[in-house]
């Protein structure tokens, strides 16, 4: 008897459809796992955004608690626009000062006389001086263009040159100092007559000799210098000893010895001559008058033959020398033969032919006191904590204003509030709950829609936040609110204890209660600017303070926030990292289950089809037997 292979032929049922429905019913766990995976992947993205927002708030909080936070940054301006600009540090004192600019610093400008444009100048060398600097230019020979190029390449830091064509046959060479100020005027030494041929200077003069002034040291009025370093100085028997040969300085002693007041010229130096053995390096110094007080300069000097050369003009040019400081760190006495102030001659030996503009110093008056400087820019040694640039002469006194620049601090706080609000708003959205939603996991009666977890459950999940009920985020929201509304110790006088003191709140008085409950911060800009202008240090202490004076910031809104956020963003064991890891492991586990169950479905479907085939074959056999019996019985009855 042949096997019946056409499904439903014998039973009259669509067995393929039955098998398909049974397989779909068996597939339900895969649908559930796939749904769980989609939900887990969405949660991973949400946790990633939580990490981004918490990290952003961490960054903004660190900026607020940093020692370099610009709350007390000050700015400099003048009552007349364009006179002065500058910057002020925290050390600068706020207030107004009377200011008058009587003369601007200017560059030294020189002009030569007209020479033949095609002049050929032989090779040679010359030296250019400006202030304490000098450059020797080696000229290979050539015309005016080659000369200007040589100056540019070898002395470009001191002088700028140009050629002006008078007519088709004549040209003039001009030279301008790079630096402003009287001391930076240009001087020239022209032994080979190169600059003279170019029409810039006159005859080169012979160099004059140094001017030497022997200084008389009053050893009887000497005073001990740095006794903590030179410990034997205060011993009565270790005083300076004046002999016929000179002054003897005993070991481990140092003294400041007065002299008759003497002016120190530019490039002048103090020459200390020694008799006999002396250390290779000796510490020497000078005392000089500056701005109404005595200043000292003390430094190690290397011995040259039997002399020590102290460059006094480098530190006290045009100041009055009042004291010579002598020391001996050696183990044997040092005998000083003489102390001489040496003033070299002016370096220039060739005078410029034409001066278009003299080098001038800046002259300013602050509170009626006249001050001169070589430059108009970056003047940082006049007022404490202030660096300023001068741009023009004033026709009358103006006001120099030094005040707190609240713009940087205000921007920093605004960025912090924005970061706080973004995290708070996002956290509330992802943990929101659909109040009218019903969560159930009962089976559906309709097999075509049934699953292990009901549609109501997933529908409600889509209506609520994807992290609804997540304790880690709910704790974060509560901690943020508590931190923003807490009181903090005020470590300074007139300090601030709560954010509302500086104009940051969850809403003004009379605001909607629901909005206040949201916990989002608002800034009263007018109030914030006022407190930043009046008490910037108090604002900074509200975010980070050191109540124990142990040089460690322990209190404040910013410090508290950093402590709260730290567990969320730790790289290896942070809350966010752990949550993402668990979700990824869940997805990987479900994928494994799905793969195994799909393999099961293949064999399950094959078994169902085999069983229905056996059933079809059985029904077919039964029908064949029935027909056989019926036919035989019919024949038997007919035969009777």
UniProtKB/TrEMBL annotation:
Residues 12-108 form the Flagellar hook-associated protein 2 N-terminal domain. Keywords: Bacterial flagellum, Cell projection, Cilium, Coiled coil, Flagellum, Periplasm. Its main location: other. Belongs to the FliD family. This is Flagellar hook-associated protein 2. Pfam families: FliD_C (PF07195), FliD_N (PF02465). Required for morphogenesis and for the elongation of the flagellar filament by facilitating polymerization of the flagellin monomers at the tip of growing filament. Forms a capping structure, which prevents flagellin subunits (transported through the central channel of the flagellum) from leaking out without polymerization at the distal end. Residues 359-623 form the Flagellar hook-associated protein 2 C-terminal domain. It comes from Leptospira brenneri. It is found in: Bacterial flagellum; Periplasm; Periplasmic flagellum. InterPro entries: FliD, FliD_C, FliD_N. Homopentamer. One of its GO terms (biological process) is bacterial-type flagellum-dependent cell motility. It comes from the Bacteria. One of its GO terms (cellular component) is bacterial-type flagellum hook.
């Amino acid at each position: 008897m042949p096997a019946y292979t056409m499904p439903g032929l014998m039973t009259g049922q669509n067995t393929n459809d039955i098998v398909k429905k049974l397989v779909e019913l068996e597939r339900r766990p895969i649908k559930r796992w796939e749904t769980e995976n989609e939900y887990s992947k969405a949660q991973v993205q949400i946790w990633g955004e939580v990490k981004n927002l918490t990290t952003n708030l961490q960054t903004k909080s660190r900026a607020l608690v940093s020692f370099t936070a610009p709350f007390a940054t000050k700015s400099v301006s003048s009552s007349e626009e364009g006179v002065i600009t500058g910057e002020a540090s925290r050390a600068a004192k706020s207030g107004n000062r009377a200011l008058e600019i009587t003369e601007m610093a200017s560059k030294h400008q020189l002009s030569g006389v007209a020479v033949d444009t095609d002049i050929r100048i032989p090779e040679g060398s010359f030296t250019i001086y400006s202030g304490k600097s000098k450059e020797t230019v080696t000229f290979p020979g050539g015309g005016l263009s080659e000369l200007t190029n040589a100056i540019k390449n070898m002395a470009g830091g001191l002088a700028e040159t140009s050629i002006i064509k008078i007519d088709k046959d004549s040209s003039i060479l001009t030279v301008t100092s790079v630096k402003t100020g009287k001391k930076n005027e240009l001087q020239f030494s022209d032994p080979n007559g190169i600059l003279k041929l170019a029409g810039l200077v006159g005859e080169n003069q012979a160099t004059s000799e140094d001017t030497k002034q022997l200084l008389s040291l009053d050893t009887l009025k000497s005073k001990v210098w740095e006794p903590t370093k030179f410990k034997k100085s205060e011993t009565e028997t270790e005083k300076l000893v004046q002999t016929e040969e000179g002054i003897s300085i005993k070991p481990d002693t140092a003294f400041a010895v007065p002299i008759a007041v003497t002016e120190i010229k530019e490039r002048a130096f103090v020459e200390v001559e020694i008799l006999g053995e002396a250390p290779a390096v000796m510490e020497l110094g000078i005392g000089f008058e500056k701005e109404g007080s005595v200043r000292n300069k003390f430094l190690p000097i290397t011995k040259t033959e039997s002399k020590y050369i102290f460059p006094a003009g480098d530190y006290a040019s045009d100041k009055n020398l009042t004291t010579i400081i002598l020391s001996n760190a050696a183990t044997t006495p040092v005998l000083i033969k003489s102390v001489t102030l040496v003033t070299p001659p002016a370096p220039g030996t060739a005078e410029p032919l034409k001066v278009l503009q003299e080098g001038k110093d800046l002259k300013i008056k602050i509170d009626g006191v006249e001050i001169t400087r070589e430059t108009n820019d970056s003047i940082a040694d006049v007022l404490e904590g202030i660096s300023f640039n001068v741009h023009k002469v004033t026709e009358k006194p103006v006001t120099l204003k030094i005040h707190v620049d609240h713009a940087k601090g205000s921007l920093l706080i605004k960025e912090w509030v924005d970061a706080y609000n973004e995290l708070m708003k996002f956290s509330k959205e992802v943990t929101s709950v659909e109040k009218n939603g019903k969560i159930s996991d009962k089976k559906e009666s309709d097999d075509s829609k049934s699953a292990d977890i009901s549609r109501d459950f997933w529908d409600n999940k889509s209506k609520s936040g994807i992290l609804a009920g997540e304790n880690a985020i709910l704790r974060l929201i509560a901690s943020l609110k508590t931190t923003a509304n807490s009181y903090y110790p005020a470590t300074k006088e007139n300090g601030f204890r709560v954010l509302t003191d500086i104009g940051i709140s969850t809403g003004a008085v009379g605001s909607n209660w629901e909005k206040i409950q949201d916990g989002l911060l608002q800034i009263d800009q007018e109030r914030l600017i006022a407190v930043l202008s009046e008490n910037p240090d108090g604002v900074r202490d509200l975010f980070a303070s050191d109540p124990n004076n142990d040089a460690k910031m322990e209190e404040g809104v910013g410090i508290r926030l950093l402590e709260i956020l730290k567990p969320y963003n730790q790289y290896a064991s942070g809350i966010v990292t752990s949550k993402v890891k668990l979700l990824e492991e869940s997805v990987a586990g479900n994928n494994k289950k799905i793969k195994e169950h799909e393999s099961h479905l293949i064999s399950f479907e094959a078994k169902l089809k085999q069983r229905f085939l056996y059933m079809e074959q059985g029904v077919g056999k039964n029908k064949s037997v029935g027909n056989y019996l019926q036919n035989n019985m019919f024949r038997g009855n007919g035969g009777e």
